[in-house]
Structures are given as C-alpha cells and as structure tokens.
What does this fold into?
Amino acid sequence: MRSILVLDDDKVQHLLLRKRVNLITGKSNLVSFERPGDALNYLSANKVDMILTDLNLGVIDGWEFVDELGKVDFQGKIYFLTGSIVSEDRKRAEADPRISGYFEKPISEFDLIQILGA
It folds into this structure.
C-alpha cells in the first residue's frame, strides 16, 4: 500500500481526495496537511511514496515547498494538483525533473487513477 501525503490549505480538498483515493484503491495510507511546515516536519521523520500538493499554499508556494523537500531527502514522486491556470506554472512543472505531473483541480477520476497507478 502506497503512502501519500496531501498538502493543500483547503480542508475540503483533503476530504475529497481521501474519498476518491479510497474508492479507487480500496484502502490508502493518506496523511493530509494544510501547512507546508507541518508537512516538512512529518517528512523529516516519516517516508511517503508520493506527495500531492497545491501550488498556492499561503505562506509559501508549491515551488518553495518542493525546494524545501531537499532538506528532508524526499525520494518519492511529486504531483501538483492546483487551481492555478497560469501556463508558466505548467511549463515549469513539465521542465522540472522533480515534478511527476501537473493536474488542474478538480482532478478527473482518469487522472487520479493515472497518478495512483504510477
């Protein structure tokens, strides 16, 4: 069973993703955080297979969070799930080898299945 960390400042997104992931996988080990600092603290002591993060996180953005992941030696996959429609963000994500995918919210069932199967 894969372990997944969700980082989004919107609690509704946490609930929606948990329900959808559980429907697709039957069971998941999913932890959710609203604040990047809390997620980084968790990652400093725990391993996860993938991170699903928003780009707009309030205190810092998703790009800054990805940069901070180097300090906790994260080795898994990173996916952006964002409401941002800024084309530069998509281009930057596609060019960055640390990013495994960029998806707009609300994420489609097809795209979520693709992420969970990766």
